[in-house]
Amino acid sequence: DAKTTQPNSMESNEEEPVHLPCNHSTISGTDYIHWYRQLPSQGPEYVIHGLTSNVNNRMASLAIAEDRKSSTLILHRATLRDAAVYYCILYAGGTSYGKLTFGQGTILTVHP
Amino acid sequence: EAGVTQFPSHSVIEKGQTVTLRCDPISGHDNLYWYRRVMGKEIKFLLHFVKESKQDESGMPNNRFLAERTGGTYSTLKVQPAELEDSGVYFCASSQALAGGDEQFFGPGTRLTVL
């Protein structure tokens, strides 16, 4: 399974933007970049995904490097509710669709 | 629309006993997944159903674990006999499509404690 590298932890202040980086230098051409997060005592929650182009949705933005070897999840205005573990996952293409391979993720702390 | 539900939310059993976890996916979702997180470790994939068929069971740790999805609706995961190292949180997820943009919806998990 293709691997991703994320910082163990990051901190932010409420209402400030947060940029969560992810390196995936071994990404293949058919791998999608997915982000999930896990709030305390809950199951993981889908945030956003992309393939080559930058993506925006109501929760966040995903900026993908031109060579696709890294990406950044952007929370435009962090709230206390955004405190969670954020996982960057390469979702394998072709017949491998299905399982998600979670790493350790980035623990995001949001200060009031 | 109801999300993925799991039952029970907590289970405490003794080593050697049997436990059955249940997952009800979102209605209409053909794909159902089981994951677990054991103490201090990462969330690990266990298996994937497409309707009632096991698509991928490469993550099942051993033959003490048996997953079923009769009729392609809800699924059960039975652990028999349970061992101490089985303690952890078991998550179920479901998805509608199977493509690169497939979003998996997770349940709240079942916390299993084996004493």
Total number of strands of chain A: 9
Lateral arrangement of strands in the main beta sheet of chain A:
1-9-8-3-4
- If you compute it from the alpha carbons, what radius of gyration of chain A comes out, rounded to the nearest whole angstrom? 13 Å
**Count the helices of chain A. How many?**
0
Biggest beta sheet attributes of chain A:
5 strands, mixed
User: In oligomeric terms, what are we looking at?
Assistant: heterodimer
Shape of chain A: globular
Q: H/E order of the elements of chain B? A: EEEEEEEEEEE
Major beta-sheet overview of chain B = 7 strands, mixed
- Cα shape of chain B: globular
> β content of chain B, as a range?
over 45%
Structural class designation of chain A: mainly beta
* pLDDT averaged over residues of chain A: 92
Task: Work out the largest interface and the residue count of each chain.
Answer: A-B, 21 and 27 residues
Which structural category fits the helices and strands of chain B?
mainly beta
Supply the number of helical segments of chain B: 0
Would you mind describing this structure in some detail?
The complex is a heterodimer of chains A (112) and B (115). Chain A is mainly β. Helices cover 0% and strands 45% of the residues of chain A. Chain A contains no helices and nine strands. In chain A, the strands form two sheets. A five-stranded mixed sheet of chain A has the order 1-9-8-3-4, with no helix packed on it. In chain A, strand 6 (61-64) and strand 7 form a beta hairpin. Chain A starts with 8 loop residues before the first strand and ends with a strand. Chain B has 115 residues and is mainly β. Chain B is 0% helix and 49% strand. Chain B has strands at 5-7, 10-13, 19-24, 31-38, 44-50, 53-56, 65-68, 75-79, 88-95, 105-106, 110-114. In chain B, the strands form two sheets. In chain B, strands 2, 4, 5, 6, 9, 10 and 11 form a seven-stranded mixed sheet that branches. Chain B has a four-stranded antiparallel sheet with strand order 1-3-8-7, with no helix packed on it. In chain B, a hairpin with a 5-residue loop joins strand 4 (31-38) and strand 5 (44-50). The model of chain B has no long low-confidence stretch (mean pLDDT 94).
